[in-house]
Amino acid sequence: MGENIYLFMIIALAVLAITDLIVGVSNDAVNFLNSAIGSKAISFKTIMIVASVGIAFGAISSSGMMEVARKGIFNPSEFVFAEIMIVFMAVMITDILLLDFFNTLGMPTSTTVSIVFELLGAAVAISLVKIYSGDGNITHLTDYINTDKATEIIIGILLSVVIAFTIGAIVQFFTRVLISFKFNEKPKWVGAIFGGMAITAIIYFILIKGLKGTSIISPEAAMFIAENPELFLLGNFALWFVLSWAATTFLKWNIYTVIIILGTFALAMAFAGNDLVNFIGVPLAAYESFLSWSESGQLASEYNMKGLAVAVQTPTYLLLASGIIMVVTLWFSSKAKNVVKTSVDLSRQDEGEERFEPNYLSRQIVKFSIKASENLNGLIPVAIQNRINEQFIKPTSYAQKAKAKDQPAFDLIRASVNLMVASVLISLATSLKLPLSTTYVTFMVAMGTSLADRAWGSESAVYRVAGVLNVIGGWFFTAIVAFVAAAIIAYVIHLGGIWAIGALLIFAFILIGKNYLSHTKKLKETKEEEILQRAESSSIQGVIEESAKNIANVVKRANKIYSNSINGLAKQDLSSLHKNKKQGAKLANEIEDLRNHTFYFIKNLEEAHIGASNFYINAMGHLTDISQSLEYIGKVSHKHVNNNHKKLKYNQIKELKQIDIKLAEILDNTYHAFDERSFEKIGNILNNKQELYDLVSQKISLQVERTRSEESSPKNTTLYFTILLETKDLMTATMNLLELYYKEHDADVKPATLD
């Protein structure tokens, strides 16, 4: 049985390694996809192909084992094989759970930091067990743990966050001042200089970070680059300056697009070549340990693991297999796209729907920054300020005339700077042997460049700062949770052996499966609801035609939300009412986003079509009234049941169902009228509206009589009246909306749209 448990652990670690590769790529894809996707420099398919080639190339050229997994955090000579296997098992179980948790939230985190703190936590737990069983002292912990390395890593994390943000902001500011938003109008030599600098930085990054220590670059070449970095960089700049100028002048290439393609490839390759070991380093170290122990003939509790201190090259076929898994995950992981979306949303140039709510700290930071900016402006001459401000004026094409989903989040200059600065910082830290997280650097550079580019205006600053604080908070949360969770799991495995491992594995895969199903269901629901689309047309008939789909969407969802509220009250189903309340809030938020678009809509109108703005504003007002009534009905229904108040009586439920059936009939007819663009049907709906009004009024009168004679529950009465009155408001808003469309629609007029 003794040897079987370790064979089982090796098999389990192999499965965990594959799972970790999948969740790891979902998290780290943001590092190399952010700039290309955000700028829309090239098609999504091309981005994915470039990234896939980079990953495959990086995986094959990977320098192999991650030394930190073998000897960087703990001293292997202080542990025996049985203890090391517990540490490795605890690390891998914790790692897949932690990364999957962050991927589900759509938050980028660091696989390097995760693995390091998991190793630290598990090693500390087993070390304390050894110290306690040997009657040792807590001070002996330093014999087992490499405290210098752990301290260096923590300092590296803190410094990388601040330095990446600051350098990104400074470089982007001066780049924008020199090149401006109208970079396409600049002389060819300006782009050539920028191209020479950026491509040189990225090539140096590939050689130092991506190919360092591999067989692809010869030791002589690596030594020459290391000994003569200035000469290498100067020669590279001259070469790429000439090539950039020739490509833009004769081939008419866009040099910024070339930079983005090359930078995406470089970061993808570096990710696979360096971060791959975060996922397979621990299982491979465990496998090497198992082979070494099997050949020794010693007991697992006696075999010393000092052999881990020796570096071992990873077999190429394992690297190739890992690369294939990573590429497949990149193409098919919806969670990877979700993590990228967070980074792109927080750095986009224009306003829009914000993912994060402002908090006290974000508000104070913005207030302090505004005051500091005002004080700084007082020191700069007005003429220089005006000259700088001119460089930050965006071209008119940046106005929201194109479809929102087709707009780039930021321009090619910012995407190029993101890739260039991230490349330089990571290669510089690697050459200095400083611990660094690729995720932290790329994310914070993107945040710094967006700040310098004035993307965080007064309309969005508090939201963006709150988002960045959330992500940074998540990073420190990662480190703490990784340490604590790995320590607890290691101790549980120490106590429970194979039974504990089996239970933990089952728990881990059930949780990952549950998260996957939940994420898939959420995506499906979003798809079914079809998020409301912004109107772009410039005439009333154009807006009617475009917004018909939105109205049909709102009416369909309104019908469902109202019915679910009544059915939830009838069954006292708290879970159903809770989901329904969230759906009501979601609809209200989407309609609010449409109202926020009013500014851009009016800006796009020509004087001849100014009536379209009044139509759009009125339609938005009626939609808001509908959503507010639905949201309030959902909220009070959930609150009533959640507080365990007295149930509605049978007669009350029966009356509400009568209203629900009649309302459903009207809303269903409305849905078909708008979905089929049969606006003439609206007249029939309006002719029958009085019937429902009379029904609601009748129920109000009945409840008044009941309250006077028999009703004894104030909460019950309040809820019932609230639902009836909100239903009346809901009907009024719906009928006003229908009258607006019926009055303004003219089938003979062809809808006018913007070019």
From TrEMBL:
Keywords: Membrane, Phosphate transport, Transmembrane, Transmembrane helix, Transport. It is found in: Membrane. One of its GO terms (molecular function) is phosphate transmembrane transporter activity. It is a multi-pass membrane protein. The chain crosses the membrane at residues 6-30, 42-60, 80-101, 113-133, 153-177, 189-211, 258-287, 307-332, 468-492, 498-517. GO terms for cellular component: membrane. The keyword Transport applies. It comes from the Bacteria. Pfam families: PHO4. InterPro entries: Phos_transporter (IPR001204). One of its GO terms (biological process) is phosphate ion transmembrane transport. The keyword Transport applies. Belongs to the inorganic phosphate transporter (PiT) (TC 2.A.20) family. This is Phosphate transporter. It comes from Maribacter dokdonensis. The lineage of its organism: Bacteria, Pseudomonadati, Bacteroidota, Flavobacteriia, Flavobacteriales.
